[in-house]
Amino acid sequence: MRIGVFDPYLDDVGGGEKYMMMLASCLAEKHDVTVFWDNKEDIEALKKRFGLPMDKIHITKNIFSPKVGFFERIKETRNYESIIFLSDGSIPFIFPTKLFLHIQQPLSISKNRNFKDKIKRKHISAIFYNSEFTKHFNDPLFPGVKNTVIYPPVALGNGEQGTGNRRENIILHVGRFRISNMATTDYKKQGFMVEAFKKLVDQGLKNWQFWVAASVKKEDEELFETLKKKAKGYPVAFHVNKTSNELFDLYRKAKIYWHASGYGEDIEKHPELAEHFGMSTVEAMGEGVVPVVINCGGQKEIVTDGKNGLLWNTEEEFLDKTKKVVDDEKLWHTLSQNAILRAQDFSEDKFFEKVREFIK
Prior knowledge:
13 strands; Rossmann fold; about 350 residues; alpha/beta; elongated; 13 helices
């Protein structure tokens, strides 16, 4: 089967792009898979950042670029039996090829689409989401369309460091520093977490560090420097634009993992400001790092409070639950072992199995 794959954000080295390229790599084992993209350097950056196996994937001209005319696009898509399209709400017209939409975040588009969009919607073979959270907010936009959830593929270590000797008193957060088109300048809440850690230190926390591992775009470097200045004088370290292997070295040293996207936001009105899944949380859990994460978005699909991590709703609860894990070594050990087990539910092998079953 000839399959085409398109992700309009391949110039952004993020978890969503890893999802799409892992999907393409998975299908390339048994199918002829082509990714539509003009700049091969962006593909190389993804391969380097995530260590992706992409040798069997073809890269060709981006036929979904605005520079490509309607009739040329139709002609080219007819060379493929299926097209997998990462959608921001838009629906390409590629009749009669099978069209699979992948949606990774709650969409802000109106339910009352125009006639043209309604025609396009009839040509969608199926939709797959990255979480139940995303599915919940988008289901009403595509009535009658077959859909499912395929959780992102998460690279997992061997979990041997769950009780390991290399553990240090480190709280870790991993995430992009900022998304430029977001309505907030602290989307991942790194600023909030830095202030929270400072409060813990001021309240008496000793011999602990907070590490922020962030991917930072050049246009955001100035704002990132502002964040670093806010942490001055406290045991806060910043690890910038690390590779996948380097991030796993950080996971293996840390004891606690923090995530706070969505804090202080009205998630019902602006669900896009919550974490839509949380791949870094699962990666941390796979290495035995105990998650202390916000109780919203995709995070609560990953973590069961009190079993394999701790969930919180308020800043007070955030600080209290962190101190609870800091002070109770036995609790940390139990949560750590259970986190390793839970992370296996999101393995790459399980992702591959679901993808192959879904796209036949």
